Amino acid sequence: MSDRKQMSVTEELPGKLIAVEGLDGSGKSTQVYLLKRWLEMRGLKVFFSEWNSSVIVKKATSKGKKRQLLTPTTFSLIHCTDFADRYERQMLLLLRAGYLVLCDRYIYTAFARDAVRGCSRVWLHNLYGFARHPDLTFFFNTPLDVSLNRILSGRPQLKYFEAGMDLGLSADPYESFRLFQERIYHEYLAMKDEFGFVTIDGTQPIEKQQEQVRKIVAKRFDLPRFRWRTQV
Amino acid sequence: MKCMKFYGEGIPGVSLEELTGKLIVIEGADGSGRSTQIELLKDYLENTGRAITNVGLVRSTLVSNELNKAKQGNVLSEITRSLFYATDFADQLENIIIPALRAGFIVLADRYIYTLMAREIVRGADRRWVRSLYGIALVPHLIIYLKVSPGQLVERNLRKSATLDYWESGRDLGISRDIFMSFMRYQRLIQKEFSLMQEEFGFHVVNGNRSIRTISREICAKVEEALHGEEDQ
To answer: What is the pTM of this model?
Structure first.
């Protein structure tokens, strides 16, 4: 029979999970990349996972998005399916094998976005109830206009769901994106204490932020424990 | 008239008072005579002037192709597969079931969340998690459960396709290397789960070991009663 019940989400695992959260344009991807490079170059077992990247679920997700088939509920479910696939097939195995698993966006991204889309928070928290909370979550806090500027100054082509057009906040994609991001920002702020985010001021210079991130990681975890045991 | 309800948190943005149609679910294993009975019920209802919409599992525009492909290779992990099915269900609920109910149709569902939940629970999923996941579902006006003994199910499946389906035999569970044994044990596990759900969800159990006609008469009468019961209130 299945072993599904035996793996509790609170059980201590040899690996550690580190997530970064924040708005688009908060600089979190840059920071998690630099963290990954640092850990790798110290000879540690590191794995990096990105939001929305499961190969199996990808086709359905992109079809749903392109043809605008998604409602708040199916949007939420299909992203959760994507997450579950990466979680079950990779993250959990790597954590059990003693890796440092780095995630660019984690379940809080879904909590924030889907709640803004109108999904019930209770339902969302239960939906992702199979996933363990990270051992450390960084929240890159940038004032709304700063992150918006970083994204919008290049006048990018905003995709329908990315701009939150499905919420019907505005017919203008840029205005819609602004209003959507503003609501997500408030969701993050409301979650930050409940889930113990470590907040990093995202308006500081990149190197300064990275210095803080590395210091916190080094202090929180016994890094030499994550060295490869076999020679590579 | 009584308003429809969701089992749990429901779907955001749906006004329940707008749903004037009726939702009737028929549950039962492959080979329980479900499809035959749905056809007969459809004939009966259309003959009396009611408009019908049919729905079933794994028929959504959004993910059914991908889900079928993934099923063939058995590449999905447990929770991922649960969620894939839930996505398929939600897509049909929002795009077929709810619009039809809004338009006053009778929706005949060839299986519903109970099969999905039973399959997941038998595979070790957490009951509360599954219940909450399907809290998006509407409570049907009537749930018919066609109960057929595993022995008869084997006979009917073999008669139809001369083999036993991989998933309907629960072979992913590894309960027996023997296909026949695996089918029997798996169907018993599913039936046990249905018995547990029976009271909680108010199934009307129909003994499916009898003749097609006898069963159909019982189902039509029960459906008529459910439709009238509603009208009288």
So the answer is: 0.89
